[in-house]
Write a structure and sequence with these properties.
By secondary structure, the chain is mostly beta strands. The protein starts with a helix and ends in a 10-residue tail after the last helix.
Length: 291
């Protein structure tokens, strides 16, 4: 009986509601790190009239994707991006994309997914082709009720009172995918690649649609090098991407990608020593199959 009560309480804590006019959509909340994607293959398909609500702790560009080894082109969700003041900024279809290569570490970098055009606070996932019937349309106001649940903030690396919020990629195929096909990355956000050892690891801009700084850090959080890398005129040109690769001069165990110029604008510099989050230092990264 006690176990059943605990389970029911957990389910209630993860339930929320999105109201559009007089229509109410019961939603399952994904408000914690590890629940919110960007891969959506583990998202349970919502029933008609229900949805999944991904909630962030602050406004940011959100990105999601869905892949399979077969059956590409199938619409798996309608996704509505909602701002902090409740306006539906966009409604997009999310498709299941078939891998272009049978080995996921290679093929997943070709999966495009969807990215919000503006910074948003919520992403509402509905059954495919159902958004219009539920009144979910661009420009409409939605009332979001998290039922007391607070969205968890991303882990952050800290320097004094400044923070860089991190998406941590320590395993394949997520590490090989990186920021591919994301046209936007919020200032203050970064993607950090974790490896089991320190090496010289040059990065490239293949299928990368946003200009970034690629920075290298040591195991103790010291910023070793910052390399600016601009978006290629054709990010899908593999030969051009290989030709524009910037060789690093340092051996880093962490590689950080942030919006181009933002680190310097924010006062960060080579030699700074960050306090690293446990989510990063305890991530147990696997060896790269490409090295």
């Amino acid at each position: 009986m006690e176990m059943l009560t605990t389970l029911l309480l957990a389910l209630l804590q993860d339930a929320g509601e999105v109201s559009i006019g007089s229509d109410r959509i019961a939603v399952r909340l994904h408000a914690k790190n590890g629940q919110r994607g960007p891969a959506t293959m583990s998202f349970a398909a919502p029933k008609r009239g229900e949805g999944i609500l991904v909630a962030f702790a602050r406004d940011r560009h959100a990105h999601f994707y869905h892949w399979s080894k077969s059956g590409g082109g199938r619409r798996v969700f309608d996704v509505a991006f909602i701002t902090s003041d409740g306006e539906i900024a966009e409604v997009l279809p999310l498709l299941s994309e078939e891998l272009g290569h049978p080995d996921p570490p290679h093929g997943i970098s070709a999966v495009k997914g969807v990215t919000s055009e503006q910074e948003i606070r919520f992403a509402l996932f509905l059954p495919p082709n159902s958004a219009g019937r539920s009144g979910v349309k661009k420009g409409v106001k939605a009332a979001v009720d998290l039922k007391g649940v607070e969205a968890e903030e991303l882990p952050a690396m800290e320097l004094g009172d400044k923070r860089i919020y991190l998406e941590i990629v320590a395993h394949e195929p997520d590490r090989s995918r990186g920021l591919t096909y994301r046209p936007a990355l919020s200032k203050g956000d970064g993607m950090i690649f974790a490896y089991p050892d320190a090496k010289r690891r040059p990065f490239w801009m293949y299928r990368t649609f946003v200009s970034i700084d690629v920075s290298y850090l040591s195991a103790d959080g010291t910023l070793l090098e910052i390399n600016p890398m601009k978006r290629l005129s054709n990010p899908e040109d593999e030969r051009a991407a290989r030709g524009s690769m910037v060789p690093t001069k340092v051996e880093g165990i962490y590689v950080l990608e942030t919006p181009l110029g933002w680190l310097q604008e924010s006062g960060y510099k080579v030699g700074d020593k960050f306090a690293l989050p446990k989510a990063l230092t305890e991530s147990k990264p696997e060896k790269s199959p490409f090295e």
